[in-house]
Fold each of these.
Amino acid sequence: MMETMNEFFKFVNQESDKLLQQALVHSGLTFLSLFIAILVSVPLGILISRRRKLSGTVLGIAGILQTIPSIALLGFMIPLLGIGARPAIVALFLYALLPIIRNTYTGIVGVDANVKEAAMAMGMTDWQILWKVELPLAFPVILAGIRTATVITVGVATLAAYIAAGGLGEFIFGGIALNNSAMILAGAIPAALLALFFDFLLSRLQHVRIKKIKRVLVTGCILFVAISSLYFVPSVFGSKLLAGFPPEFMGRNDGFPALKNRYHLKINTVVIGQALLYDALKEKQIDVISGYSTEGRIKAFHLKILQDDKHIFPPYFAAPLVREDILKSYPELQSTLNLLSGKINDSLMTEMNYRVDYLHESPGEVAKDFLEKKGLYQNPRNGHKGTVRIGSKIFTEQYILAEMYKMLIEGYTDLNVTQRTGLGGTQICFGALTNNQIDLYPEYTGTGLQVILSTPQRVVDSLGGNENEVYNYVKSEFKKQFNIEWLKPIGFNNTYAVMMRQHQSERLGITTISRLVNYLSKK
Amino acid sequence: MIEVSRLKKYFGNIRAVDDISFSVKDGERFILLGTSGSGKTTTLKMLNRLIEPDEGTVTIDGKRHDDQPVELLRRQMGYVLQNTGLFPHYTIEENISIVPDLLGWDKDKTKKRIAELLIKFHLPPETYMALYPVQLSGGQQQRVGFARALVANPPILLMDEPLGALDPVTRQQIKGEFKKLNELKGKTIILVTHDISEAIELGNRICVMDGGKIQQTGSAQELLLHPKNEFVKHFFSHNHFLLQLNAFHLADITSYLQETSSPGKISELNPASTLMEVVGELSSFATAKDGIVFHDEKADKFFRIDMVSLFTAVQQKLNPGQ
């Protein structure tokens, strides 16, 4: 724990510029969405307090919006609004609606009927009653709603990093992907502090004399606009091309840091969820991405892999990672799993990924089709000797491989198989393996080297990016440290690759990463 | 002159007000009396259009009350609620100045007028102007409520159970002030209450309502002596004698009293005093035995009255033949 805290302070210290920028963006996103939400919700709350029949419908819809999981809501926004600030603001706005509408409605309906009657009887107009009686008296309740919405929005805004809108979520996602607690804390603690700070700031308004409602509103508006504009501060400094990298790539040594250190790449970056990367590139919302070399969309979207002319990306050969104890219990497992060894090369894997992602065939169909073609498929024996639990990460290739292993095990042994597919990332998958929740999953040698073993750079350099040396190193280390066995590589190398749209890369004459660096450094 | 003609208001199937007509003369204190659900409050609220009538008309000085913007109508009518309806976020001064502000009065004029009124209501302005309603007692709040209704000098005052939420002692106090306050002189007052003795004490004319209909309209004496139907008779039967003491004056029973030529000490009572006031005077030891003497200025005669002669006179006047 102490160690984590020390690392946290060290990290914050190192990354203070970035942290400040993210905090500004985060505040800006939060307040811009809140501001729009207030402008919509308060009048809507007033409206339904006048037309009570509408209140059920309006509150119902706002309530349903609130129940949509935030990640899903962000997902819905992408086809409509693309990536970046716009969909994030819309999603946050939708989340902020319910508390504000509901509290405005409750606050106004809750104003003492006698007071309202007196106001009417004295000859105040509807408008005067609203401004002089209802809003001032409902103000504390409305403000409480706004405060709730603020805290929610600050929290949900961390997810904005997933769709390249920036904010403190960049560190959180990066930290989760890299199992770096200090990094997670560097995003989470400032986010929590921001929530507390904004809540405190708004609570100050609660003590303003509520009759001066107009003055409060003017102050509030200025405050909101000022904080909202923070969002645009960091984007003033720009480069010619914009890169979008997933959180994991941003943080790992052989990812963006390697591009910076070895190629001296200087490019504006946004953090974006792995799943959205290719679409964002295709839709020209970003120009450069880091992807995987066997990705099906490379073919579908006409993307160009820039040649890694300095060989910074280590080999990522896929191989089954299996618990040693299950290999001992069922010795037939090893030979069965090795049936796939050397059978799939890069283009075969890309092709299969493409079929699943773009032709919408199921991973099972594609897997079976392949095994049949290679003459490896056998009908399931439906044995009851024991159960093998196969895991997979949350992307297409892993699903296909998991299916193949299932078919092989069921066809060649008397074991049956359960699957735990779609495990979030390397740490989650590997955690499941070491905690004996799964028995095997396909892993990549480079990931084992860099992410799981966190091998020192000195050692990585000594391996020289040689595929066999890397394989042997991880195989012996895993055995030593975890009692986990790397079986034989499947054949393809799913390494990191920097990509652009083919059309743009041709137009700019960029075919290698070095040329990209040259292009960017030209004025 | 307020004329109400064939007024109706239904809430769903309930006939809250069912075809009623009455008129209130200028300067009259007109009481709408009835139990809850009788339609009295609905009737009152239709006068300033807090409730819109379904049918029927209200004219004020010959002008229909719905042919001007409702806000303008209301600014000409003071309104006092049972639960004051003071704005909790306004000071006493701000509360009272609402209507003057709506009417566009000059600030100084408003301030002077508020100070004047607060003095009349025994709330020293220098202490009370800057306070908020919660800092005042219930009775003080209701006085502010009266001041708010009176500040712009409206010719008509509507009051919805103005004393209903007060404790008996405070109620008695404010009732006393109410009767003496010169601010109220000459104003047309329509007051809703369910309290019969309050109605008799404060009203010139009482309109008894039940089931959305008017049962009888008249002075307290008329209602007590000549109830038009069983309902009215029954309504006034409880504490009938005490009600009579409130409703009748010395002048009403003078003819049953003995004239005296040796007045001795003459009391402050006069023919306009209510019999209740006479009982009050008679209830000390000194007066109970010998009675008291009052002077009928019109006839320029002195009359002596004691408990026995009072009771006998009431008996003869109100229940002849028994």
Note: Chain B touches chain A at residues 48, 50, 70-75, 77, 79, 81-90, 94, 98-99, 102, 148, 158 (CB under 8 Å).
Amino acid sequence: MKIAVAGKGGVGKTTVSGTVARALARSGHRVLALDGDLNPMLGVSLGVGGEQTELIVAARQAVAAGEEEHAPTIEEIVQRFGADAPDGVRMVIASRVEFMDPGCMCCGVNPVNLVRQLEHGDRTVVCDLEAGLGTIDRIEEGVLDVLLVVTNPTGKSLEVARRAIEAAEAVAEIVVVANRISDESDLEIVREVLGDRELFVIPEDAVIAAADREGIAPIDLDPDAPGVAALVRLAERVAGAPVAA
Amino acid sequence: MPLRIAVAGKGGSGKSVISGTLARLIARQGSPVLALDSDLLPGLSMSLGSGPDPVVPPLMAATEKQPDGRHWGWREGMHAALAAQRFAIDAPDGVRLVLRGKQGPEGFGAIIGASQTFWELVHGLVDAPEFRDWTLIGDLPAGQYQVADDWAPYASIYLVVVQPTMQSALTGRRLLRVARKRAPEATHLVIANRVRGEDDVAHVEKLVGEDAFASLPFDEDVAAAERLGRAPLDHAPDSPWIAAMQRLIASLAALPAAPAKQP
């Protein structure tokens, strides 16, 4: 199956993507994690480490630099330019914005096309999308099985979530992930904007905050912490089967 | 010399709330301020206190598709400064706000024209005599793309906002690299945001690899404003975070004037 994760910057998209990918891999899924953010950070929450994440070559730049003589297939890109993350997760960075990119953002190897073209087969593909609505505005019906729309109990992130739901409701099953929820008043703030829609709640968790601070995968710091355990349950919900932490 | 500032950082680091508060505090000091929101999301508008969905004249009406069928250029009689005057809206404290446009279910194609128009507008403002005495503050979207693509050519100061997390710091590092390449004449400063003490400032400085020019405290009142989607200046005007913003403005005003980027 193919899962994508969207939301405002800073709401925890990457933490959700990385932890769900690791949890699925631990329960036997063959997982490909695609970093579709032009500011790629998925390596950090997958447990590759901050400095190592900086060293991973992005597919677009590798192809643009001419390391491929012939137009590579998506599978060749995954094999050649991907990196290994813990628990057997394979990860690929779609593109980085480091220096002037000679190509056109709309053509060729870019996050949107990779999200579209990555075949899942017997694999589970987890796509961490760019902040905002840029990618989901361009995804057609049938590309994704599930879109996780992540929000915090804040005005801005809820406004972005509301627009994301509006943009994608017709093309994918949406699960709204209410992240960093401390109490009932936080949930009320979320419901005020999103109404009665079912929410998958991830509690505020000091372990996840500590992992974010140091650049460690939350699932490596403490898989039993309440927020991490909730993300493992989210992976189960999405996969439709029990997932071992 | 009025300040010419671009604010960049990871999503959620506090770019918009810093941009919006800077704009209003400087406007209160009596300077004319133009706030430039090149994000498709409503962050700056909400942080200024104009709400998530202000009624905005469509900037795209200032331009038309060129004969090549791919680019948008000014309509006859229109130019950047005139567009900035005509298509800006009033925000609190007399700030004028130009928005690139909204993003929603209308899709990707509809926003290309608005994006090109906004890009033309910010480039035209660099030398516009109409705005010579104006403070310009640009709130850039998350990540490095717009810095690399020269969406803030007016900026003599880049504020790179970093909170004490690995992802935010790595983003800050990447941004500093790209901004120094794109605008080597500008001054590039790290602003440590939501710090709970000296440890957090040191953590930011260690991960980014350079000193913070200023630090802004974690502030429950500002967090409450964010939950409500309100401007901190309206919700918690006497908070320590606002006081730190006042000090930041004084420090920015005291910087030696940097030459603006040549058009």
Note: The radius of gyration of chain A is 17 Å.
